[in-house]
RING-type domain-containing protein (Phytophthora infestans), 513 residues
Amino acid sequence: MERSNSARAAQLGELVTGRRYFLLTLAATGIAAASAVQRLRESPTPDPRASGIQLFIVELLSSRISAMIILHFFLVAMYHAFLLLARAALGALRPLELQQTKETLIPFVLLRCQLLVSTMEPSGHRMELGMLVVWLAALAVLRALLALTQARFQHLLTRPMTQLRDLQRLGAVLVGVIVLNLALAATCSRLRLFSNRIVHVPWFEASLMLLKTLELGVQVGFQSLDVRAASLSEEEDSGYSENSEFHLLLLQTVLSGCYLVQLVLYYLYVISVDQFRVSLFDLILILNVKNATMRLLDKIKHVKLYQRVVLDLDQLFPDATADELESVADDVCAICLKSMSTQAKKLRCGHLFHRLCLRQCLQKASVSDALAGLDPLTRMANGLGMEGPLPPAASGSSASSTSIRCPICRKQVCGGKCDEMTSAEPEHPRPQQPEAEAAAPQTEQQQVAINNVQAEPQAQPAAAPGTAAPEEVLRFSTAFLSRWVPFPNFSFEIVRHRGGMRNFELNARWSGF
């Protein structure tokens, strides 16, 4: 049933965006225009002070059917203009990118429509409504182009070798969005398309989109530095500054804070115009502020992790000696597949990596938890299911989220109990080869243990008289509701003791919003 519904939705999308549908819309618009011209000829003597174009527009919009046809033609034309602009700027468009753009654009347009309905004067004319529709359509095109650029950037991050020219193209598109956004706001103010009641709305929207575009631009610049640093030669490595990436990440956090402040001011302005009342629209505004606050808190946490892990790379791992580099002269780095001649770091498991490659892995581990056992490939490598519980290094606090594993042998090399054990052990040279060879038996033992656990039947035998009775634990949490509605987080835990008597124990915990 779900596949048939998705297939029907895809067929409907192809029909609506097809060339035949556009030609039919164009024919209906031509018929409406011809009908307006015919009515204008049959009407009595028009006002000589009005021009012919104004009389034609007034006559065309006088009928509701003609107005709906014109509005529909305008929206279809704007959609095709967006596709033409996007293909000219970004090249071929992927279906997933278009789907993500539609999912982003629909709530954006609905919220702005509700905002205009709530703040407009009751005695609005059709001409004013038409100009507002034109402004909203142009704003939606810019927002869709920004969402499409963000989807393309996320796609580039998943590619093994990102080209610098692709990131430069994204930067050029973002610059164009900024210029068109400011030009649209200036045009609305120059032509006075908005009434005095909502005259500041276009500048609020322009400022929000500007901050959103700058935030994405910082991410593109952040990735461009990594790509550029990876392409530098060994002689140019000395001129590369790692603090610049930290400053870019800090700038992104500042932009997120500015976006939150601007969003709160915008909603306060809307409430001052429309007066606060308990309605669905006000709850949506509050939810948007909450989501922006959570994004800001995540950015702050990422900055702290980056500063603690990435910038302390020299203290975490020692440099490889000349003898160690000579022993792996015929080998390559497992991350970038380039020869290891200089600037190599040695992990506690004995494997060597380029300093820049290791720093990028630590950066991804601290920012996106790519090496902390959260991505699908790492979960499969660790013997965990796709929907299973997180490993202790990933399900703990922020301090344990910096637990890094070696990309080759998957041994823990940073964070958690590894640091405590290392500090407690005396410092003495460790041979590299025995540790690398010892990783294979340990991996086999872990795999055997995992297979035994998976093959274990669900029904457990009764406990012996001298042993503790097994327990069954059922956990439930409402944390997922806080993403959509302002609901407190409650955690329930039901423990069933499987002894001689069936005893149940209920534990509840409240962790706030």
